[in-house]
Amino acid sequence: MKRIGIIFMITALLLGGAFTYGPQRPETSFAAAAKGELRGIWVSVFDLPKLGLNASNEAAFIKNADQFLTDAKSNGINTVFLHVRAFDDAIYPSKTFRRNQYVSSSYDPLQLMIQQAHKKGMELHAWMNPYRLDYNYYLDPAQASTSERIKKAVSEVMAYDIDGIHFDDYFYHAEKGYKNVNGTITIQKEQEPSPPVKRANVNAMVSSIYSYIKTKKADAVFGISPQGSLENCRLGGADIDRWISQSGYVDYLMPQIYWSNQWGSKADRAMFSERIAEWKRLNNGRKTLYAGLALYRTGTAISDDPGWMKKSTNLKDQVQILRSSGLAGYTLFSGQDLYRSAAQKELSQLRVLLGLETAPSVPKPIPAQALQVSASSYNSLKLSWKTLPGVSGYQIYRAASKGGTYKKIKTIDKAQTSTYKDSSLVSGKSYYYKIRGYKGSQYGAFSTVKSGTPKPSAPKISVKAGKRSAAIKWKKISGANGYVLYRAAGTKGKFKTIRTIKSGSTIKYTNKKLAKKKKYTFRMRAYRLVKGKRVYSGYSSKVTVRIK
What we know:
- It is a single chain.
- The chain has eleven helices and 30 strands.
- It has three domains: 3-20 and 34-258 and 267-353, TIM Barrel (Alpha-Beta Barrel); 372-452, Immunoglobulins (Immunoglobulin-like, Sandwich); 461-546, Immunoglobulins (Immunoglobulin-like, Sandwich).
- The longest helix is centred in the middle third of the chain and has 22 residues, at 195-216.
- The protein is α/β, with parallel strands linked by helices and 548 residues long.
- Helix 10 (314-324) runs parallel beside helix 11.
- The protein has a nine-stranded parallel sheet with strand order 12-11-10-7-5-2-1-14-13. Strands 17, 18, 20, 21 and 22 form a five-stranded antiparallel sheet that branches.
- It holds the Pfam family GHL10.
- Keywords: Signal.
- InterPro entries: Divisome_Glycosyl_Hydrolase, FN3_dom, FN3_sf, GH, GHL10, Ig-like_fold.
- Residues 367-457 form the Fibronectin type-III domain.
């Protein structure tokens, strides 16, 4: 019995016992994998040139296939879903179907891939698009001859030592219309039947294919990979409700859950978790359920699904979610993305979860005393810290209160940087910060929270003694609305306010009627008005002069 078949039997026998269908665990929990967990990868006909699987000779094909399968296995893959029928064609030699344009005609890619996969202990399933002729036209599912043509393709593939047949969910999805097997248009797109009729037409084909497969090879499995949206499945002719509730249609379903958990323009919807929960409720443990995962989206900017750029642990988190939800495995789309540079961080995190790679060491926590916060100007604060050896950089978080919600405001990508200026702040308002080092996708502990309050810079004054007077000068302070000047008798006297200057652009003042030959000490501070209240700078340095 092959792996998927074993999982199917285990699921059927252990309903309510093998898996727990309670509240979903947090993404950070480490749920156990299902016994014999399926870890697949789809290899599309469009992947073949990228993987060198369109090589002109058999020896080159075997070399490239071996390399791809080795790389796939190093990422935990144990099952390959090879695209054998994409557009009513075949990647293998066929007496009925034309040869797919992406393969060589000098050898049999299907036979060689099966041999190479089995040598490595991997399963190989034949992936088919049953109806699609091209993007504009599909075979008409209502025609009995259509089902017979699909069965012919299945019969040819069943002659190989394959482990299963896998259908993609392209049923009623033509752009322009539908044709019979002779190429005559039978209905236009706008003439499509109602959803119930669509499902009935597709069901007739699916049930006949299921029966045929089981007759020819009892341990071969048959499954379908429908869209991730339940309603879209039903509208497009995929009778997922019947396939789950009744026998004689499929051994498993593998919905394509191609969302992140930071979906939407605001990245605030856990769409992946929502879809998994919907399928779990619908299935209720009755059929083996896998999930198709969007390897092709990792590290990619997608306007309505920014989570793929915001995190590098999407796949790792998703596998934990589907495990905790009782799913029996997953398949990644697609083969060429194993080598895409933007996907490597995600794949590394997934390998760590699967125990195939050791997580990088976590940087040492930043000591509690390392972070310091001080006013830099009326609307900015300066953060400084001690650098750490062995880190890639630092992440800075800020909150409006010590116990408030901290949001990341800056990622410093240079390990030797030790300062940061946080600007565009409000004078007189307190801000709270913490910082941590990171290396790759691993993070150190946060520093102790430190706070600061933006305020105007302290003035620097100069004082020149005159005849019974003192001339005080200073430079204009950015953001100041005014200044307060203080004076004390001698060097140890008590300071008193002698002048409030209500203009931030004023830069001098003369204090008159002072006592001859006496010493006076002066100091000043600037202020900024915020909602009618003064936010003061620190005091300037004291300056003492003897009056003439």
